[in-house]
Design goal:
- The protein has 635 residues and is α+β, with helices and mostly antiparallel strands.
- The protein has two domains: 3-270, Aminohydrolase, N-terminal nucleophile (Ntn) domain (Glutamine Phosphoribosylpyrophosphate, subunit 1, domain 1, 4-Layer Sandwich), CATH 3.60.20; 298-627, no CATH class.
- It is built from 23 helices and 19 strands.
- The chain has an eight-stranded mixed beta sheet with strand order 11-9-10-1-4-2-3-14, with helices on one face. It has a six-stranded antiparallel beta sheet with strand order 5-6-7-8-12-13, with helices on one face. Strands 17-16-15-18-19 form a five-stranded parallel beta sheet, with helices on both faces.
- Helix 5 (135-150) crosses helix 6 (153-163), helix 10 (338-350) packs parallel to helix 11 and helix 10 (338-350) packs across helix 18 (528-539).
- The longest helix is centred in the middle third of the chain and has 17 residues, at 391-407.
């Protein structure tokens, strides 16, 4: 199971502290490689850092170096305590940082090695809330809950052992208490006092043995006894042992705050800590974003609300093309998402058109989206023409481009990974010509979908108004994009695969080939509540729970992967843009947006698994590589 360790030291330099941490992290790594974390305590502050990668990679990261430097900067050679954890996942995936250790609750920060088999029953019985799905989090919340009732450390820890089924070797700090606590119910815990000024513990004897030899320490390594609660005073390094197996009356010693004000400071890389615009929710590291003196971003200051061309103008266009005998009179792109499903309803029921639907299924159209296409077509008696991509080739192209991206990560190239779907524009032209139809309708055009960061990450500062077509970007922008993609491809041989031609065609279909399509929501108001009510009441439209509450982009399986990359590396995703545009349009408040985007950006693990299965790669390996990419935001 997991590797845990810790030490308490006096009269040690910051250089020595760093060396001790690096050594213990490396020695503990064989016990767990799926996540790593460290907590440091000196004076009245505890600094926390954790990442869902192995300790070897974490030690080499710039973020970790900055964490150590900033955490130790104000120490002034005072005593210091450290906790470390190398995680082997049992419950709660490591890509949710709340599951990784050290675990932080309201009053406790601790590490745990073991498995609590009945943690869900404990959570329910004691009404313990949870930010993750980890048995370790519930373990520390149970101790915290018991302390709030008894105000006695010994009683609370004994009650914890009485309630759990499973194994626990733990060490933890408590708010307002200048001590470090250790206890276990199954051994797998070793302890050594190498001098009056240095105490260390770890999961295995061999870890402490190798550590002792590396630094030429003296002292005896002992196996820590089960059902003993050891309290280490962080100033004097004195210890007190309390016997939790003693059936007698617990000691009368109660939990005393000693007027200490302990502050937990989480320095783990987290987008939650980024400064955001005071009006919308875009973060400070959004490409080319600037804040004015009031903390309002440059996009908000330039933003103009959507100017709809109007239903009347839309009706006049349809009047020119509507057939009088019920024969097809237009082509409509159907993805199975909300917008295209609602658009088909409008064309048939409000404007009396006779559309033919078409779908370009390039492998990553979600199953629910396919269901919705069939439902809508059946309910409205609409022919749907399918054009499917070469699935094996598309999967290979995406695999190759993900591999290329991971070798030289640059968020501007994420559009390269998803370029295969742009062939839909080609089929929108070709099928219209084959069917001799005058019009192709796309159910897009509302500027909620504006995402300046797509070109911003390519080094282009461009303000978008009224959700412009890619064709309308201007030749200067198109040339800059073409040069960016070309140079990045030339510098990275992994991009030289058979997807090169598809990527070139995607660029051609988007930016060069003439765009003579009609974009429905350039004319017709996009009202989310009306859209959802209509689809649910009339068609039993199917939402996809894998994509969360926000069903925007649920029709494309690659969405969950792209947004995971954007959020993990850049600190925000497409959803931050979407919610910010909703604020600017007056559809939601900023407080609502902050709550919604936290759900939007939660890892969509089921959708990621489906994506990995379709493309054919090891999801855990790829997520590890993504999580190890240096962050583009301050931590």
């Amino acid at each position: 199971m997991c590797g845990i360790f810790g030490f308490v030291a006096k009269n040690k330099s910051n250089k020595e502290i760093k060396l001790y941490l690096d050594s213990l992290l490396k020695l503990s790594e064989p016990r767990g490689t799926q996540a790593t974390g460290v907590a440091l305590k000196h004076q009245d502050e505890v600094f926390l850092y954790k990442r869902p990668i192995n300790s070897s990679r974490m030690i080499k990261s710039k973020d970790y170096e900055e964490f150590l430097n900033s955490s130790l900067k104000s120490r002034d050679n005072q005593s210091i305590a450290a906790l470390g954890h190398c995680r082997l996942v049992t419950d709660g995936g490591e890509h949710n940082q709340d599951n990784n250790q050290p675990i932080q609750t309201n009053k406790i920060l601790g590490i745990h090695n073991g498995v609590i088999n009945n943690f869900k029953e404990i959570q329910e019985a004691h009404h313990l809330d949870s930010s993750g799905s980890s048995d370790s989090e519930i373990l520390f919340k149970l101790i915290e809950n018991q302390i709030s009732q008894s105000q006695n450390i010994e009683v609370s820890t004994k009650e914890m052992f009485n309630k759990i089924m499973g194994s626990a070797a733990i060490s933890f700090f408590i708010h307002d208490k200048n001590s470090l606590y250790l206890t276990t119910n199954f051994g797998s815990f070793y302890f050594a006092r190498f001098s009056e000024d240095f105490i260390v513990f770890a999961s295995e004897e061999i870890i402490l043995t190798n550590f002792k030899e590396s630094f030429h320490f003296n002292g005896v390594i002992e196996k820590f006894p089960s059902f003993i609660l050891r309290e280490i005073n962080l100033e004097s390094l004195s210890t007190i042992d309390l016997d939790l197996s003693n059936p007698g009356v617990p000691s009368p010693k109660r939990f005393d705050s000693n007027n200490m004000q302990l502050q937990f400071i989480n320095k783990s890389p987290s987008p939650k800590n980024i400064r955001r615009c005071k009006k919308c929710i875009l973060p400070e590291n959004y490409p080319f974003l600037e804040f004015d003196k009031n903390g309002v971003c440059s996009i908000c200051n330039k933003y103009k609300k959507q100017k709809y061309l109007g239903k009347e103008k839309l009706a006049k266009i349809f009047d020119q093309h509507r057939s009088k005998n019920g024969k097809p009179d237009c082509l409509i792109g159907l993805s199975g998402g909300r917008d295209s499903s609602y658009g088909l309803h409008l064309l048939k029921n409000e404007f009396g058109m006779n559309p033919v639907g078409f779908t370009y299924d390039w492998l990553l159209t979600s199953k629910k989206a396919r269901h919705n296409i069939a439902k809508m077509a059946g309910a409205l008696d609409v022919e749907v023409i399918y054009r499917c991509g070469n699935y094996p080739r598309q999967a290979a192209n995406i695999r190759n481009n993900i591999e290329g991206f991971l070798k030289d990560p640059h968020l501007g190239m994420m559009t390269f990974v998803q370029a295969g779907d742009k062939e839909m524009y080609h089929w929108g032209r070709k099928i219209r010509k084959e069917k001799n139809l005058p019009l192709t309708v796309w159910c897009s055009g509302f500027q909620l979908e504006q995402r300046e960061f797509f070109v911003g990450y390519c080094g282009i500062n461009k303000t978008l108004v009224n959700n412009p077509r890619l064709f309308d970007y201007g030749w200067s922008t198109k040339l800059q994009l073409g040069m960016f993609y070309t140079l990045k491809t030339l510098k990275n041989p992994s991009y030289w695969n058979r997807s090169i031609w598809d990527n070139f065609l995607a660029y051609w279909h988007c930016f060069i080939a003439k765009d003579d399509f009609l974009y429905l929501f350039n004319y017709y108001p996009w009202v989310e509540q009306e859209m959802e009510r209509t689809l649910n009441d009339l068609y039993a439209w199917e939402a996809d729970s894998k994509f969360g509450e926000n069903q925007w982009r649920m029709d494309d399986v690659h969405t969950a992967f792209n947004n995971y990359v954007y959020y993990s590396v850049g600190g925000f995703s497409e959803f931050d843009d979407f919610r910010s545009n909703q604020i600017r349009e007056g559809l939601i408040t900023r407080d609502e947006a902050l709550k919604l985007v936290e759900k939007d950006n939660a890892t969509k693990y089921e959708a990621l698994k489906e994506f990995a299965s379709l493309i054919g790669f090891n999801l855990e390996h790829v997520l590890k590589e993504i999580d190890s990419i240096p962050k583009l935001y301050r931590v």
